[in-house]
Amino acid sequence: MSGEHHSSTISAQVRRVEALLEERGLLAPGEVDQRIDEFAAGGTPANGARVVARAWVDPGFRDRLLADANAALPEVGLSMAGGLQEQRLKVVANTADVHNVLVCTLCSCYPIALLGPSPSWYKSEAYRSRVVRDPRSVLAEFGVTVPEATGIAVWDASAESRYMVLPRRPQGTDDLDEAGLTALVTRRGLIGTALV
Amino acid sequence: MSRINDVGGMTGFPPVVEEPDEPRFHEDWEAHVFALNGALIKRGVYNLDEFRDAQERLPVAEFLGSSYYERWFAAITTLLAEKGVLTPEEMAP
Amino acid sequence: MTTTPFAPGTRVRTRTADPDGHTRLPRYARGVTGTVLEVAGHHPLADDRARGLDVPAQPVYHVRFRAADLFGSGEHTVTVELWHDHLEGPA
Predict the structure, then answer these.
(1) What ipTM was reported for this prediction?
(2) What span, in angstroms and rounded, lies between the C-alpha atoms of B68 and A174?
(3) Contact B48/A13, CB-based, under 8 Å?
(4) Superfamily, domain A45-191
(5) Which of A13, A51, C15, C40 is 20 to 30 Å from C27 by CA-CA measure?
(6) In which residue ranges of chain A is CATH 3.90.330.10 found?
(7) pLDDT in tens, A31-90
(8) Is B14 inside any structural domain?
């Protein structure tokens, strides 16, 4: 599959297709590089962490976020408009009764505009095939144990909405300010394969 | 149709492995493929659903033997040929 | 032509047919009864867009299924996002 020879072959092939498309007027010179730069400066899990921390400290924001995430995101200076088109975001909250986990079984749908590119494991057949059928085993592979009394809700991003998990605020964090709370939240927490 | 991408609930796949400190892209050409696809969709050369469809139509053995962005590039070249934008010969490795 | 959406709480059954070509109705969720959680906007059917068709928007839903109904076992739920045309209902 990989290897240096293969890599240089496909790399040259991609450049050639780009050059041909420029010749045909379907790509502007420098357009690909510009898009790469914009993407690198775009979404990141830190955005999701900020949203979560605000929801932990501001119950009103939490309610608005869960009711209509697209309308609430501008309150923290964010939006879902950075991609090909603005997408609907649905935020699902973990509680004592339910732990949420996200997947796209058909391809790799993910809130890229907000969180940046997804990790490879999220795109893997192993994750996508198994988490809908046996989420507790997959969570265990990430070292996550959800109490038996807590139900698991899997969300398959099969259409136009993108999802983000709102983890539960860990105990013993009363002294932390919003920035301190933001630092606790991980990308896996936003997908549901970590508790925070 | 039930195609090779439609794996939800299938058994036989291995445990999930997380790559530590994974970069956004593993190789430079992957970033180019990502950006190229966005540019072509934005320009209306094809739409996102046609792009997904083109990946799903890849021969099963090629699909399974390809990395994530190799599938993307195969779908892009498939659609460029089908839409009459470039010929397979022009795009050949 | 506008489609009247199924209301939240409606029991719906997914289609069993394996459509010709691209579809966003996953195989594991075919021919199963679930519950509409909410309407998630209106969009042209992706199955049609993949064929290059210009079709009107229709309701899209979060539909929740019990794992036991999907796979024969499991205590969890799976919520799939489906277009109106993927559903037969009310079940």
Answers:
(1) 0.96
(2) 42
(3) no
(4) Nitrile hydratase alpha /Thiocyanate hydrolase gamma (3.90.330.10)
(5) C40
(6) 45-191
(7) 999 999 999 998 999 999 999 999 999 999 999 999 999 999 999 999 998 777 789 999
(8) no
